[in-house]
TrEMBL record:
InterPro entries according to UniProt: Alpha_rhamnosid, Bac_rhamnosid6H, Bac_rhamnosid_C, Bac_rhamnosid_N, Rhamnosid_concanavalin
Domain Alpha-L-rhamnosidase concanavalin-like as annotated: residue spans: 328-434
Single GO MF descriptor: hydrolase activity
All copies of domain Alpha-L-rhamnosidase C-terminal, residue ranges: 834-905
Keyword DNA damage assigned: no
Keywords: Hydrolase
Keyword Hydrolase: yes
Residue ranges occupied by any Alpha-L-rhamnosidase six-hairpin glycosidase domain in the UniProt entry: 439-831
Pfam families for the chain: Bac_rhamnosid, Bac_rhamnosid6H, Bac_rhamnosid_C, Bac_rhamnosid_N, Ig_Rha78A_N
Bacterial alpha-L-rhamnosidase N-terminal domain residues: 151-319
Top-level taxon of the source organism: Bacteria
Protein name: Glycoside hydrolase family 78 protein
Amino acid sequence: MAMKIYDLRTEYLDRPLGIDAVQPRFSWKSSSDGKNMKQRSYRIIAFREQGEKEAIWDSGELESEQSIAVIWQGPKLHSCERIYWKVFVKLENEEGILEQAESSLTWFEMGMLQELDWIADWIEPEDEVEIDGRMPAPYLRKEFIVRPGLKSARIYQSAHGLYEFWLNGQRGTEDVFKPGYTTYHKRLQYQAYDITHLLSAGRNCLSVALGDGWWRGTTGGAYRNNFGYKVSYIGQILLEYEDGSREWIVSDETFKTSTGGIRECDMKEGELFDANLEPEGWKESGFDDTSWKFVHLETDQYARKDILISSNSVPVQEMETFHPKVIKTPNGDTVLNIGQNIAGYVKIRFRGLSKGQRIRLVHGEALDEEGNFTLKNLIVGKQEKRMQEIIYIAKGEDEEEYCPIFAVFGFQYVLIQGYDKEIEPGDFTAVAVYSALEECGDFTCSNPLINQLVSNSRWSQKGNFLDVPTDCPTRERNPWSGDSQIYANTATKFMNVYPFFEKWLGDMSLEQFKNGKIPITIPISTSFHHAEELKRRQSRIEMLPDDNIMKLVLKMTLGSMEEGAISDGSAGWGDTAVITPYVMYLAYGDRQILEKQYPCAKKWVDYVIHEARQKSEKYQHMPWYKESEDAEFVWDTDFHFGEWCEPDETEASPFLRLYQNPDYNTATMYYFYSAKLLSQMAGILGMKEDEKKYQDIAQKVKRVFNKYFIREDGSIKEGRQAPSIRALAFGLTDDDHKERVAAKLLEMIKENGYKLNTGFLATAHLLPVLAKQGFIEEAYRVLEQTESPGWLANVKAGATTILENWDGYENCKASFNHYSYGAVCSFLFEYTAGIRPDIDAPGYKHFTISPVPGGSLTQAKAEYESGYGKILSSWKKKDGKIEYEFMVPVNTTATICLPEDGGNTAEYHVGSGVWEFSEEWGAQKKKIEEEVPDEDI
């Protein structure tokens, strides 16, 4: 039997450079041809030298099955040191067959572990800035000498704003949109890069450009200057020589600054580049910078080094490329169609331009009903002056190339104005840009529309995972807390998102308000971190007429960092504090995510408990107020977005209604669910008192909910599917009500023509709820519905991503790239293919494979690369039977559940290996046809 150890990771990353975890976590996978193989023991050995001469840590052989999140137990780690490590693993099965192997050598490198390591200064290139205007991107440069005998060179750097850097004219990294997005005033990421290959003995040049980015560019849809008015930079280069000496090149007042071709740079609104103003050779040594001025040190409250943290997540990079088709629209415009809705930008090659010629590129998602380019689905209110736009002013050379470095857009179509040359292949290349997360899962089946739905969901995840999870890459780019918790489970199926969410959840803890309230966006992109700018914004809002609906919307979503806004703390949005860490623990099995996030989750639930105990002036006539204790377990205060974006919502803006009538139904359900999950988290962490406390609270909410909210006929809210779905999904119905609620839900779905009427919060739970209740064919009928509202309606119409509105593609409205409804894909993995993790053995250490065939499907297959290796579940109908194939990775076990005649289920408890089964399905199909009327099949 052949055994192999592979995919060694440190802090979930492959050979990370510049981490700051003082006790890093190690993970590895093992493969074997044998069946039922488990890890019997492991041994980690670490070295300071690649030659493995002297071990600095030897764990010894440890009898353990653990191969995920094994914590460093060696000596104290130091800044900038590189550690090499390998692991020895022994596998065995129940028959005593033993295999052993040694991994290859891998490494990790530490970053700056303490504030004193930062000897560089924050430098500021700008004197005065135009607060409401667009500023040119500052350029910085510094020449320095490298002595002969250079062994290695590293650069550590960050910025207020975005930065890009070059050494001797060569771009320093493939990573883009650095330093990423965090709650900048409390923690700011820096990056570390190996730049040895970019330096040579003698004179060298470091060049840096700074962009507005999330720091002072457009966030929250239309807000600017969220964190500050001026951009700045900090960076230091460590040179290590063969003789053992070290030298630092640091940002200080010797750096010089000027501006160049980038006259404007906003991530959302776009870039204006004047090629005539770009200094030739400014990125190389020997450039004449005598006309450039020296920078000054940043000395205000933002010039902090104690908040600098390593970038421990994956970087944002250029990923897939597309070669667009050129189309002429009916109105005569030249438009590029790349065939896929993406987040990214276009690399451009112009030929034969005259000096000063102005080219304009506008990026959008749609063509209108006549086939002309339009932004109407992205415009909120009146037309914005600038949106997703590149303006290029030509130098007049035979051939000119340009690519934005500080702007990113959501688009499938690009309108080109001012360029009349024939477009040749290679002139325009579209590039998808997102966090370089490893793809780990896929689902395919016999229905091509469902396969396209899977592709659309994956592309919406790519388009909205750019260092933070956003709602859309176009008009808002808000990192909504609600959207992320809705989609988090599905996100784990498609990509290894643990480091991505671990980083984002860390910002959630820091952004949580003192009273426990969770903001609706993380980092907060509505309430201002910048107090001076908040005052300016609020004064402008007060100038609006009182009857202006936008005045209410702005007042509800804009607030201070002390108290937040009215809309912060909304049920279903704030509950991400509990739900998302729980989902990450279930998918990856690392209890650190619970340990880190438990205080935040507990503080949120305590906030909900407090708010629910407050009396509601609006609802004191309701029956639960007749018994004062019952009223404490109904959350009928505060603002809540509720189900949001239901397909038959007719109001242009429901803010006023929701503000005046708090959605106590949805809020109370999430009150129960978060208390229930928090109790489970406390139990996992060994906090017995908390486990009992929050379990008791959840049970009291459940009692009150069943007493007052569920009607005799099983309905919860007349004509609405969402409350019934949520009650069943959360386990909120007691035994007396469960069957009636399920029956009523099915009745509503049938009456609606097997169409859903759910919005953001409940949609992901609809199909699992139906399947759990035994309504399997009905679940597939809703899934395969091709009329709106339904998942496949937009697919059939030609969408390549998930839309914000159920009828968005048909009516060209709202965002074309919102991943929330794509959460249905978790049903395909967990029910159609049947791969479900186990909270008692999380991270797929043990899991269930229980496929649920149905609908028109004749075959389906899901593959998932877990933390232990590849899981596969495949089935197909053939010759009157269903043939199954399953794959279970080494060091895991699975319970395979397959239906038998008579309605029974056969269970098979297996270990690693490939397992094949076959069962008769014709009798089952006949039984279903007998039980379900023809019109319902």
